[in-house]
Amino acid sequence: MIEKKSPLGRGVNALFSKIKSNSFAYIDINIISTNPHQPRTNFSNSELKELAKSISEYGVIQPITVRKTKENKYQIISGERRFRACKLASINKIPVYIKETEDDKMLELALIENIQRQDLDPIEIGISYQKLIDELKLTQEKLAEKIGKKRSTINHFLRLLNLHPIIQAGLRDFMLTVGHAKCLLTITDKEKQLDYYNFIISKNLSVRETENLIKKNHKEKKHSLYETKFFKESEKKLEKILDMKIKIKGFKNGSGKLQINFQSERELNKIINVFEN
Fold first, then answer.
1. What is the pTM assigned to this prediction?
2. pLDDT tens by residue, 137-180
3. Where are the domains of the chain?
4. Alpha-carbon distance 18 to 3, whole Å?
5. CB–CB of 256/235 below 8 Å?
6. Is a pLDDT exceeding 80 seen at residue 41?
7. Which CA distances in Å does 31 have to 3, 20, 23, 26, 71?
8. Which letter, b or e, does each residue of 211-226 get, where b requires 16 or more Cβ atoms within 10 Å of its Cβ?
9. Does position 249 have pLDDT exceeding 80, yes or no?
10. Which of the listed CATH numbers 3.10.450.50, 3.90.1530.10, 3.40.190.10, 3.55.40.10 matches domain 20-100?
11. In angstroms, how far is CA 162 from the centroid of its own chain?
């Protein structure tokens, strides 16, 4: 007999082996609650309606997995999409596997099963990894060991959470790819990230075009500003004369900009008087 290979990571299989055997039952949908640790937060209404229609016609083919929290109360471990579709289809009782756990920590680790799903978007995966790290006090290395993933994979998804929130939303809505996101992560300023993001969307740039654009702009910025000892000394002299903050931006061709910051009309008049005299 051929042993079927599990789609879960090695660490997840080990965790489930420590959870007591499940029992099967049909239970009232109204005594089941969702789990706050559920990694998936995006549920397509159209897909839920399609699934609800299928369930109405054929029933629930794959039971959801729950745990008993108190007498006649259950919490979802996996299968929230099916649970939501059943509610849409007005199904009163649904088939479930009931898992028994000895403590909440083991249950939280069991929830890693959901992270292995193919339909989670990159941001949902990143948020899930971060929750597990924070709540279970794990390092990236320890988490990687527990779920059978490489540390670089964990880090890759966690870094996506450093993107501007609007870009994260765009990634979840498939407005851009993870490849585009990796390019944008080379920019630390979130507002500049957003400027690039809007340009990428408006011009429908490919990942390669995005990468070249950012590299080109970084290179131009690096070589456009030209600081010399003369500019620095000039800043200090002007600051001493005006008793104000001065900034000189110089370029290699000898041109530049002089920026004088004033806080009131009185200070502005002071600047004018200095130049007039």
1. 0.55
2. 889 998 888 888 899 999 999 999 999 999 999 998 889 999 99
3. 20-100, 163-224, 229-276
4. 20
5. no
6. no
7. 36, 22, 17, 12, 10
8. bebbeeeeeeeeeeee
9. no
10. 3.90.1530.10
11. 7
Counting other chains too, the contacts that 177-185 makes at CB distance below 8 Å and 24 or more residues apart are 177/207, 178/122, 179/207, 179/210, 180/205, 180/207, 180/210, 181/122, 183/207, 183/210, 183/211, 183/214, 184/210, 184/214, 185/159, 185/160
Report d(CA 111, CA 37) in Å as an integer. 7
Q: Identify which of 251, 246, 252 has the alpha carbon closest to the alpha carbon of residue 233.
A: 246
Instruction: Determine which helix (DSSP H) or strand (DSSP E) holds 121, and give its type and residue range.
Output: none
Phi/psi of residue 59, nearest 5 degrees: 90, 180
Q: Dihedral through CA 23, CA 25, CA 30, CA 32, nearest 10?
A: 20
Question: pLDDT tens digits, residue range 42-74?
Answer: 777 888 999 999 999 988 988 998 888 888 889
Q: Say how many C-beta atoms besides its own lie within 10 A of residue 173's C-beta.
A: 10
Tokens of 201: 């969307």
Question: Maximum Cα–Cα distance for the chain, whole Å?
Answer: 98
